[in-house]
């Protein structure tokens, strides 16, 4: 039994140490040193090269180092019969909440306007308003969205959330499905997108969606790049429908140096930096699934491939 590791974004030494702290007899094979590929029955990966997993004859389960598995599902060679498990981890949810709260407070306390004013040497006060007067909507109330909604609500913002199925969350007004989308959006002075990329959510952040929001609202997008129609964003910013946007995810990453969003005065670009799973806590989650696989127990966070998340 051996676990293949592949990621060019995560800290391999931290993860190796954390995984071995959890399972001391773990046979870890770090790509490209796979040894005898027939030994490998599990893979822990982030953006593996297409075909890598299909080439492992005895693979039994695939564990993702990330929460979003859209890129993996887009690989036509991904073995269709194997369970694919997402990353569910307190540090992933915690970092995402910090990111969204940071951006929300930046807009709420007019820091984006003060940055512009400083560039002009302009001394002008924008009076603060109470957090309770800001309505923030979170699209996606899964592992991340729920935590973010609770964090924003705990800070005093008026929080609403939208998901596919109905939810009951303390301190959060909830909406579900296409029927309630318009009512949800109408009360979003700030919209946070934390949806997985699926056929239903591709291009969901478009002109129709912005039109349903109040004038002068804000967008925080940390889901996936292909959910945003960039031309519609630029037009919404031009018309004043949106006051400003912070975007963490892009259809092509890294965002090319000549991309106009880098220089848009009302757009803040972050380099897919909102969140990631810390090795220590993430390894505990993966180790739980490894033990489950060894015992033949049901795995945690198995992706529903039909649904796409
Ligand atoms: P989950 O699967 O736990 O939650 C997904 C949520 O989205 C659920 O509430 C689900 O509804 C809702 N949803 C899915 N499809 C629709 C739809 N068509 N209409 C309405 N709601 C829908 O995912 P996570 O919270 O763990 O992660 C969310 C996404 O965040 C990831 O897929 C990834 O793309 C992104 N991400 C970004 C990171 C970054 O650094 N920028 C880091 C980590 C993740 P329901 O509850 O009814 O199923
Ligand atoms: C993830 C991500 O999906 O980092 O975990 O985007």
Quick summary:
With 309 residues, the protein is an alpha/beta fold. 30% of the residues lie in helices and 17% in strands. The strands form two sheets. It has a seven-stranded parallel sheet with strand order 8-7-6-9-10-11-12.
Instruction: Determine and state the CATH class of the largest domain.
Output: Alpha Beta
- Please state roughly what percent of the residues sit in beta strands, choosing from under 5%, 5-15%, 15-25%, 25-35%, 35-45% or over 45%: 15-25%
How far from one another are the termini? 28 Å
CATH architecture of the largest domain: 3-Layer(aba) Sandwich
Query: Rg to the nearest angstrom?
Result: 21 Å
Could you give the order of the helices and strands?
A: EHEEEHEHHEHEEHEHEHEEH
Q: What small molecules are bound in this structure?
A: NADPH dihydro-nicotinamide-adenine-dinucleotide phosphate, oxalic acid
Largest sheet: 7 strands, parallel
Within CATH, the superfamily of the largest domain carries the name: NAD(P)-binding Rossmann-like Domain
> What is the general shape?
elongated
Mean pLDDT: 97
Which class of secondary structure composition applies to the elements?
alpha/beta
Low-confidence sequence ranges: none
Strand tally, please?
A: 12
Give the tally of structural domains: 2
Helix content: 25-40%
* Tally of alpha and pi helices: 9
CATH topology annotation of the largest domain: Rossmann fold
Main β-sheet, spatial strand arrangement: 8-7-6-9-10-11-12
Give structural notes.
This protein is an alpha/beta fold and 309 residues long. It folds into two domains: 2-89 and 277-295, NAD(P)-binding Rossmann-like Domain (Rossmann fold); 91-269, NAD(P)-binding Rossmann-like Domain (Rossmann fold). Helices cover 30% and strands 17% of the residues. It has nine helices and twelve strands. The protein has helices at residues 12-22, 70-73, 90-108, 111-120, 143-154, 181-186, 207-211, 230-239, 279-295, and strands spanning 2-6, 28-30, 40-45, 61-64, 84-85, 135-139, 158-163, 172-176, 190-193, 217-221, 242-247, 267-269. The strands form two sheets. Strands 8-7-6-9-10-11-12 form a seven-stranded parallel sheet. Helix 3 (90-108) crosses helix 5. The longest helix is centred in the first third of the chain and has 19 residues, at 90-108. It is elongated, with a radius of gyration of 21 Å. 36% of the residues are buried. NADPH dihydro-nicotinamide-adenine-dinucleotide phosphate binds at residues 66-68, 92, 140-145, 162-165, 194-198, 200-201, 222-224, 248-249, 272, 274-275, 309.
């Amino acid at each position: 039994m051996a676990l293949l590791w592949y990621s060019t974004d995560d800290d391999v030494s931290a993860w190796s140490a954390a995984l071995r702290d959890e399972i001391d007899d773990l046979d870890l094979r770090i790509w490209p040193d796979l040894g005898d590929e027939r030994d490998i029955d599990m893979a822990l990966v982030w953006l593996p090269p297409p075909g890598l997993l299909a080439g492992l004859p005895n693979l039994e389960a695939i564990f993702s180092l990330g929460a979003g598995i859209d890129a993996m599902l887009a690989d036509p060679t991904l073995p269709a019969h194997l369970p694919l498990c997402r990353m569910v981890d307190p540090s992933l949810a915690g970092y995402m909440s910090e990111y969204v709260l940071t951006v929300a407070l930046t807009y709420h306390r007019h820091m984006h306007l003060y940055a512009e004013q400083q560039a002009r040497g302009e001394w002008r006060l924008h009076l603060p308003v109470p957090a309770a007067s800001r309505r923030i909507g979170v699209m996606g109330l899964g592992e991340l969205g729920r935590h973010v909604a609770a964090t924003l609500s705990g800070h005093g913002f008026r929080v609403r959330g939208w998901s596919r199925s109905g939810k009951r969350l303390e301190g959060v007004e909830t909406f579900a499905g296409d029927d309630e989308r318009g009512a949800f959006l109408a009360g979003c002075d700030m919209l946070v997108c934390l949806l997985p990329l699926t056929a239903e959510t591709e291009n969901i952040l478009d002109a129709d969606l912005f039109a349903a929001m109040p004038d002068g609202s804000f967008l925080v997008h940390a889901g996936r790049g292909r959910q945003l129609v960039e031309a519609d964003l630029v037009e919404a910013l031009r018309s004043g429908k949106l006051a400003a946007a912070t975007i963490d995810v892009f259809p092509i990453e890294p965002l090319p140096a000549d991309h106009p969003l880098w220089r848009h005065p009302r757009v803040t670009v972050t380099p897919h930096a909102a969140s990631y799973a810390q090795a220590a806590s993430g390894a505990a989650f993966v180790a739980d699934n490894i033990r489950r696989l060894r015992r033949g127990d049901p795995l945690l966070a198995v992706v529903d491939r039909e649904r796409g998340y």
